[in-house]
């Protein structure tokens, strides 16, 4: 038990530090590790979701001090996305899991390749579409991503990061701060409550996972602010491609 707790802590710390740097992808390492240590998938997913809220809390401590949140953008990330999260959780039961895994894996890899082939993308803040039309279209995009978040286990934070960069012209650092605070706390919090009601949570595993998530979220946020957009961009590209390949691997097995 002591070995398992230590292993959970270090896996959580590494996964959430990378996720905090890239704007998503903590489930790439953390969820498979929990399953490997013996939990059934549904219990592992519920436990992972609860722990992932701590990532948002840890990151928000640093990012909120940095003070770069616009109320209008925060609002559309709530109003636009949460209905999608709820709808996705209800619709996914009718879609074959293998189809979802192949499709999401391909889209996630495409995000990484798109960033690689756009070397200047997200390196500076060039905010745009901050008007009514822009907010409406932005909300539609967030609704679609929220749907994916509600219906799939991991990786959708990466989509939020890219959407904020592409549509609103954010640099990687700013986009990641929005993703971690809003998706990490609000979206994953909604998912954690839902899964906690319909599934079982391994409560005695949570202290190690939450501690790793809190420290990883804070450390990643510190590096984002200290090192800037170039480091975040590279981490995003690596995590998206690895996440996509991981989803394809799940589809095969």
Keyword list:
253 residues; mainly alpha; globular
**How large is the count of helical segments?**
11
What shape does the CA trace take?
Answer: globular
Number of strands: 0
- Could you name the ranges where pLDDT drops below 50 across 5 or more consecutive residues? none
Give the CA-CA distance, first to last residue.
28 Å
Helix content: over 70%
How large a portion of the residues is in β-strands, by DSSP E? under 5%
Major sheet size, sense and barrel closure: none
Secondary-structure class: mainly alpha
Q: What string, H for helix and E for strand, traces the elements in order?
A: HHHHHHHHHHH
> What's the rounded overall pLDDT mean?
82
Which helices and strands appear, and what pairs or packs with what?
Layout: H1 2-22, H2 30-36, H3 41-66, H4 71-79, H5 82-91, H6 97-116, H7 132-151, H8 156-168, H9 172-198, H10 206-227, H11 229-252
Helix pairs in contact: 1-10, 1-11, 2-3, 3-9, 3-10, 4-7, 5-7, 6-11, 7-8, 8-9, 9-10
Please explain how this structure is put together.
The protein has helices at residues 2-22, 30-36, 41-66, 71-79, 82-91, 97-116, 132-151, 156-168, 172-198, 206-227, 229-252. It has 253 residues and is an all-alpha fold. The protein is globular and about 50 Å long. The model has no long low-confidence stretch (mean pLDDT 82).
């Amino acid at each position: 038990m002591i070995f398992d707790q230590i292993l959970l802590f270090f896996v959580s710390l590494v996964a959430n530090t990378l996720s905090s740097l890239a704007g998503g992808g903590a489930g790439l390492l953390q969820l498979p590790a929990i399953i490997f240590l013996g939990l059934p998938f549904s219990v592992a997913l519920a436990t992972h979701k609860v722990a992932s809220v701590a990532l948002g809390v840890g990151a928000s401590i640093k990012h909120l001090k940095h003070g770069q949140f616009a109320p209008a953008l925060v609002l559309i990330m709530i109003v636009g996305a949460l209905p999608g999260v709820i709808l996705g959780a209800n619709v996914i039961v009718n879609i074959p899991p293998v189809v979802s895994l192949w499709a999401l894996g391909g889209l996630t890899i495409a995000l990484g390749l798109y960033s690689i082939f756009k070397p200047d993308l997200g390196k500076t803040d060039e905010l745009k579409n901050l008007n009514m039309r822009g907010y409406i279209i932005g909300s539609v995009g967030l609704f679609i991503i929220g749907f994916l978040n509600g219906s799939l286990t991991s990786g959708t934070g990466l989509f939020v990061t890219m959407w904020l960069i592409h549509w609103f012209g954010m640099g990687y650092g700013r986009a990641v701060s929005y993703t971690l605070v809003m998706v990490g706390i609000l979206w994953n919090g909604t998912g954690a409550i839902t899964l906690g009601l319909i599934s079982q949570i391994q409560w005695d595993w949570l202290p190690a996972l939450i501690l790793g998530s809190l420290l990883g979220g804070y450390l990643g946020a510190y590096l984002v602010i200290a090192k800037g957009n170039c480091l975040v961009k590279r981490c995003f590209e690596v995590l998206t491609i690895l996440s996509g390949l991981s989803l394809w691997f799940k589809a095969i097995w």
